[in-house]
Design goal:
Blueprint (H helix, E strand, L loop, with lengths): L8 H4 L3 H21 L6 E4 L9 E7 L2 E5 L7 E3 L12 H5 L8 E2 L5 E7 L5 E5 L2 E2 L17 E3 L2 E5 L5
Parallel strand pairs: 2-5
Antiparallel strand pairs: 1-6, 2-3, 4-10, 6-7, 7-8, 9-10
Length: 164
Amino acid sequence: MWPAPGRSAKARRPGWIGWLALAAVVAASVIVAAYAGLPSGGRARATVGVASSGSALKPTAINGAIVLSNARGFTVYSFAPDTRTSSMCNGQCAKFWPPVEGPVTATAGVTGEFGTITRSDGGAQATYNGHPLYTYVGDAHPGQANGNNLKLNGGLWREVIITR
């Protein structure tokens, strides 16, 4: 981007105070993330977290319900046949219902128990209140819940309603 008329590119660069503020924010984020990631048997109770882009889950109003969504605003789903320790959606199923990679954190407004399970391919999948989490390729845009109440891949898919 070109500087505004009458301003040099140098004038638009942050001064030492700007860099100091940025460093403080980054340091605080690292400390909070490290604290949130302390060993807890694979589970963490979260109400507010600081996360890298893509790993924070947040509340989103969709069709009159407050549901869990990923950082991009896409609805998060659970699969009825899953257990607290394993996903029943693997292989071809996981291409249509991509697992939410774990670990994750939560933004303000989300409470509940977050954790991870190890998938059959060895990857970590995020869980919420004991349910492995997924998104749906049929949701083309944030704020959609096209996968809610679908009976596919041997079970029922439901949007994840947030515990308040």
